[in-house]
Amino acid sequence: MNKNTICLWYDRDAEAAAHFYARTFPDSSVGRVCRAPSDFPGGKAGQVLTVEFTVCGVPCLGLNGGNVFQHNEAFSFQIATDDQEETDRYWNAIVENGGSESECGWCKDKWGLSWQITPRVLTEAINAGGEIARRAFAAMMEMRKIDVARIEAAVRGGSSC
Question: Which of 33, 67, 101 is the last residue of a domain?
């Protein structure tokens, strides 16, 4: 086991979530699936209790703990993308698999986990500071899924229209 692993609480679908992440993101996989040795709050003996998985190289543990706790935006995965095609691929995979859109490059998967699908051009523009950062940030604030061409136009000081 890794020294530090992110533990994500699921109602009962940790294994399904892990397999979805492994199919969707590079450097992602599903590892050991452990079943409960006895009944537990929210589950019965023999049901999946934990699932070890990796998302983009980050080790995680999915815990089927019942409906006691819910995911919220205080935790999210931020996935850096290189272009619009990659941005669209991840965004669409999450949203079209029962997820939902949010603002500024954020979306939620069907299990309620938040994702930031963030093109590198946006991060670089904001890190540049000054007027470039202001224009890129203002453009982002009007978006749901990030539009790379509009961010690039904002960085240049123009409009993509």
Answer: 67
